[in-house]
Specification:
Rossmann fold; 2 domains; five-stranded parallel β-sheet; 38% helix
Length: 300
Amino acid sequence: MKILHVSGAKGWGGNEQQMIDLLPELNKLNEVENLIIGINNSVLQEKANDIGLEFISISDKKLKGLRAYRAFSKLIKTLKPDIIHLHTSDSLTFFVITDLLYGIDSKAVFSKKGMGSSSSFFSSLKYRYKKISKIICVSQAVKKSFQEKFKNENLVVIYDGVNSERVNRIYQVNNLREQYNLDDRILIGNIANHVPAKDLITLIKTINVVVKKLKFTNFHLIQIGEFNDKVTPQILNLIKELDLEDYITLTNFKDNAVKYLEQFDIYIMSSQREGLPLTIYEAFAKKSLLLVLRQEVYQK
């Protein structure tokens, strides 16, 4: 069986880590061949190359444009995959437009990770597209949200997993307490890129309640995640406005951030629209004390 995985991601997050965890395991099955199509010079391409996964770059920026649609169509006709696995929303759009222009014979499945989706006419068209054999939901919460919005019954729940060898590998890392002079304060951690779905604004407001209303100050939050030109300034402005600089440190992106989990006394999550973030599995694997701000997403 030949599976063609398609992703429009340029940066790095749980969705991409899941691919890097999953595909080498699938490759151990002698009857499965995996190939990735994505963005040139993306982090996913770099990580795939590092572990010997075949990566075909189809665009330098985004999965769009006549040249990219044409190239995708030719690749499918050449490779003749049994299944096309679409991992990002833009890869689904890419598939639908390419099929409308050139026709695609291969079966396709789409992985739905988050709970937020536009309910526009085009969104309804692509999420209910006739050539999508199955939509894989990462949790029951995602399936419920999707059914309510699009009345789509062609859904199946398949939970993510993590590579235990990667999570439990011994890394040489900086001691966060020493690096940030935290002494004996309780070290609270959060790993999330600065995107709206992570709802880091709510996390900052929660810290404000703990400090100002509960009068508890013997802690420090280390927030690890890739900065964003739109979201990060909002977070920084809120931290300054609430006078929380002494309680919160934003580190920006750190490679293999999972290696810092065991240093946290408490791991906190504030995600708003995610179906089931990969870091929740990583935190469990590290036996971290986990605090979540929204129960519905995580209760399963």
